[in-house]
Amino acid sequence: MKKMVWIVDDDADMRSATQLMFQLLGYDMREFIDGRDVTRALLGGSSPDLLFLDLNMPEVSGLDILQFIRSRTTWKKMPILIMSSDSEDARVEQTMRMGADGYVFKPVSLEELESSINAAIEKRRLIYEGKTGPLVEIP
């Protein structure tokens, strides 16, 4: 069974490019244009195997979504990979402290994306190993 990734990005071109890469890596996906839509889907009972989240979006930012997800035990095991053109060390560090499992810079290559996905999934697995059971298997 394919793993599900949710892509959250307000830029249609980036969503399309990212979607193609995830398809090449064997993922099923669902895309969201903004943070409100993904939050509604989560609250409605759905959740992905991996969340791929743009950091800079209008109204509800990627940081807002990250903080919302990490504040609830329901989704604490969900691997979250951040994507942004913002490469400031302070921003990357802040994002990782808030609970992101990885950070990739736009534009991202297929190889970098695959490596980052595997590292994010492994990080979440190690955080919860022996505490709450296994996490997502690497596809």
Briefly characterize the structure.
With 139 residues, the chain is of the alpha/beta class. It has five helices and five strands. A five-stranded parallel β-sheet has the order 2-1-3-4-5, with helices on both faces.
Topology:
Blueprint: E1 4-8, H1 12-24, E2 28-32, H2 35-43, E3 50-54, H3 62-70, E4 80-84, H4 89-97, E5 102-105, H5 110-128
Describe this structure as you would to a colleague.
By secondary structure, the protein is α/β, with parallel strands linked by helices. It has one domain: 3-Layer(aba) Sandwich (Rossmann fold), CATH 3.40.50. Helix content is 42%, strand content 17%. The chain has helices at 12-24, 35-43, 62-70, 89-97, 110-128; strands at 4-8, 28-32, 50-54, 80-84, 102-105. A five-stranded parallel sheet has the order 2-1-3-4-5, sandwiched between helices. The protein starts with a strand and ends in an 11-residue tail after the last helix. Mean pLDDT is 89; it is low at 131-139.
Which keywords apply here?
single chain, 139 residues, alpha/beta, Rossmann fold, 5-stranded parallel β-sheet, 42% helix, disordered C terminus
